Amino acid sequence: MRLVLPLVLVLSFPVWGQDSKNQIQKYRDMVAEGSPAELFEIEGEALWKKPQGPNNVSLEKCDLGLGAGVLKGAYAHLPRYFADADRVMDLETRLAHCMVTLQGRTFKEATARVFGTADRPSEMESLSAYVASLSRGMPMAPGTSHPKEKEAYELGRALYVHRAGPWDFACTSCHGAEGKRIRLQELPVLTKVESARAVAATWPAYRVSTSQFVTLQWRMNDCYRQMRMPEPAFGSDATVALIHFIVVNGKGEPYRGPGNKR
Amino acid sequence: MAGPMKMRATWANGFTDVRVLMTHPMETGQRKDPDGNLVPMHFIQTITVQLNGKTVVDCQVSQGVSRNPVFSFRIKGGARGDKITVAWQDNKGDSNSLDAAVA
Amino acid sequence: MSRMLLTVAIFLFPLWARAQDVDAVLKRDFHARGQATMDRIVQDRLQKVCTATHDNPPADAAKSIEAEQMKTIVFPAGSLLGDWKRGERLAQGGRGLTWNDKAGAPADGSCYNCHRLSPAELSYGTIGPSLTGFGKQRGAGEDAQRYVYGKIYNAKAYNACSQMPRLGFSGTLTAEQIKDLVALLLDPASPVNK
Questions:
Q1: CATH number of the domain residue B95 falls in
Q2: Interface test with C, best of A88, A154, A227, A228 (most C CBs within 10 A)
Q3: What domains sit in chain A, N to C, each tagged with a CATH number?
Q4: A-chain residues within 8 Å CB-CB of B57?
Q5: Does the distance separating the beta carbons of B6 and A11 come in below 8 Å?
Q6: pLDDT tens across A161-196, in order?
Q7: Which residue from A9, A50, B98, C129 could staple onto B5, CB 3.0 to 4.6 Å apart?
Q8: Is there a contact between A213 and A207 (Cβ–Cβ < 8 Å)?
Q9: Contact yes or no for C165 and A239 at CB 8 A
Q10: Helix, strand, or coil here: A167?
Q11: pLDDT in tens, C18-34
């Protein structure tokens, strides 16, 4: 039996040149074939089943919108209104809710470290990877009929164009016109259905350049940082509204995440 | 304490394609942490692949490979149900291994 | 004039009402971190008008804003041409004013994030127009220097709802730093003009 050995070892150097865009896409395709996102999914599954908190209970009975413990398709139906919390929640907000209500943890403790590092991912990141992976192939279907869902959408829409801060930035400053990019990073226009669909279908994601798993709550947080604004609270109405706005604009797209980003 | 590993081995048209994902920081020893100190070398040095207990790949890996590496290779032949074992060891003596049946 | 203002006001009222909601949400959901303090969420007149009109204000409103912003520009005495080598470093860097940046530490211009400048730099953004060859086109005379300095200091003096930050007005860049960027754009020896 002869062994044919094309070794494909993923290297993390940037590929410049005339064909920058093409090379970057080739590199992304290579990474997607054996995505380290899967490692976070494995970690997330373990955390989902791990008894934690004063109640020493796992998250397995958490209701992410389709019933207690129902994971298949749950991510595709978020964000949505939850009667028990009387607000619209995205995945991460809902996970924090379950950590508090099921496991007996405090919100402060459960969200003390929501954004991790390459060496130490956060619980939230790994859990997000796991739950999202179980919606693969399903059309994104966030809640749109409840009055609070409509309100969240309108708030997201208003925030998107709201110019503030010492640099006068709104989301539109970067994400307002087609075909623009910051350095070599292309910027989706999230008010356009096509771009919103691609975003909704590929977040959360593994970010190759920092070896970190990034979520939409992280993205909202880091955008505001770069907009030179003060910090939005994790899982706040502001962040959930923006995420809801994006996912609703992208609804219908079959989920193909967790994805890979630069 | 090694992080999770994931492997997929599929047979098709006379070849067995194997892809294994490994969790590892793969520190080159050249990188500086935010305080300016050099992060010590910590990388996978050897990867071995066994097919039904017989070593078929013996790999020497260096620091040039990025964090959380993917190792993908193709074996001529193989059959569904064959057992593939991938094991790695790093420069600190840490190791991990995973078995998978060819699908 | 007052009829026009009334029309604009009626048109803008529902948007103004919505702006009230957003202000309340920002106040409730955001908090200070590092140097990014809560005063930053307070919109000035320019930001309110540009938000309400989706960056497309009526001509009169735009002129009024531009005139107001022009008054904020402080031109240093003498030549406005600094050192283009320092300018290139400033254009490459992205530090300053975030909650991760140390308050009071020198900031950069972040120019390459949005613009193309030196042809040798391939990693450039396209949010703003390409500035390659800018000095070749305009020369390095006093008028050109004043225009570039003014634009970097307060881009809104020239285009009311521009997406370009007011780098001088916001205190991001010092006069010396802006002069270095003027040189980067106008100095014939600068890579931008080669």
A1: 2.60.40.10
A2: A228
A3: 36-261 (1.10.760.10)
A4: 3, 5
A5: no
A6: 999 999 999 999 999 999 999 999 999 999 999 999
A7: B98
A8: yes
A9: no
A10: coil
A11: 666 999 999 999 999 99
